[in-house]
């Protein structure tokens, strides 16, 4: 075996190890995020001794309890979008992993964890939760722009990140419209702003899964199977 081939095999093995390391780190951060979410959401239950004390407290704030429950479900839906998305992105990422790639991927991992951890800590807030979601999507948008600028993504990966960036902008714009343009009431008893924003987040998540499902499933030649609208496929 030539020295050139040996060096190439070594570099390929190192890149595979680095990718695996990022995936392990991602799994650990996912566990920490879910732990924070469950602690925040379920923590207040500890002050009740039995169901006879718990149910009356829920009955007094039925509308708010319903909002918080759906917020938690939507949070888990976002986790189910972003963490597998990050996993697949790292799996199909640059074949050569150097200092720039490590820096960009670590920055993305930290932003992903930070955004979801902050969201987890605001799960019981009926207002702050939505501002954190907007901030997180804004960071996600700019991180993809920065990553493409610094690394120059493959065209097939760029098609996916274009969809994610578009979804980031639609998410931010939709919540801002619900809050400041319409504007919908943010207080009880109906919490119209929260319900409208949650419906938007659910619909956007479903659209994300539909358009990029072949990518999330890591199907062979997934880049040819994406369910993108014509205008989005042409832009990509």
Proportion of residues in extended strands: under 5%
The helicity comes to over 70%
The termini sit apart by 41 Å
Query: Biggest sheet, in brief?
Result: none
Which ranges are low-confidence, i.e. pLDDT below 50, for 5 or more consecutive residues? none
- Got a strand count? 0
Pattern of helices and strands: HHHHHHHH
What is the mean pLDDT? 87
Principal-axis shape equals: globular
> In total, how many domains does the architecture comprise?
1
Structural class: mainly alpha
**Count, helices:** 8
Radius of gyration, in Å, reads 21 Å
Characterization of this structure:
With about 240 residues, this protein is mostly helical. The chain has one domain. Helix content is about 80%, strand content about 0%. The protein has eight helices and no strands. Helix 3 packs antiparallel against helix 4.
């Amino acid at each position: 075996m030539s020295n050139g081939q040996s060096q190439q095999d070594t570099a390929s093995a190192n890149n595979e190890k680095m990718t695996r390391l990022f995936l392990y780190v991602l799994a650990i951060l996912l566990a920490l995020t879910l732990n924070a979410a469950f602690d925040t959401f379920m923590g207040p239950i500890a002050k009740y001794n039995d169901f006879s004390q718990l149910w009356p407290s829920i009955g007094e704030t039925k509308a708010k309890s319903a909002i918080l429950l759906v917020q938690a479900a939507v949070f888990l839906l976002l986790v189910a979008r972003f963490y597998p998305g990050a996993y697949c992105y790292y799996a199909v990422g640059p074949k050569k992993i150097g200092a720039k790639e490590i820096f960009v991927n670590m920055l993305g991992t930290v932003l992903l964890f930070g955004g979801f951890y902050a969201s987890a800590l605001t799960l019981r807030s009926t207002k702050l939760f939505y501002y954190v979601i907007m901030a997180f999507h804004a960071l996600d948008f700019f991180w993809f722009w920065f990553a493409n600028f610094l690394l120059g993504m493959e065209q097939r990966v760029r098609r996916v990140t274009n969809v994610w960036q578009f979804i980031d902008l639609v998410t931010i714009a939709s919540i801002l419209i619900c809050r400041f343009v319409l504007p919908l009431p943010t207080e009880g008893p109906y919490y119209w702003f929260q319900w409208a924003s949650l419906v938007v987040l659910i619909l956007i998540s479903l659209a994300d899964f539909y358009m990029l499902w072949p990518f999330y499933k890591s199907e062979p030649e997934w880049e040819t199977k994406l369910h993108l609208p014509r205008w989005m496929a042409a832009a990509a």
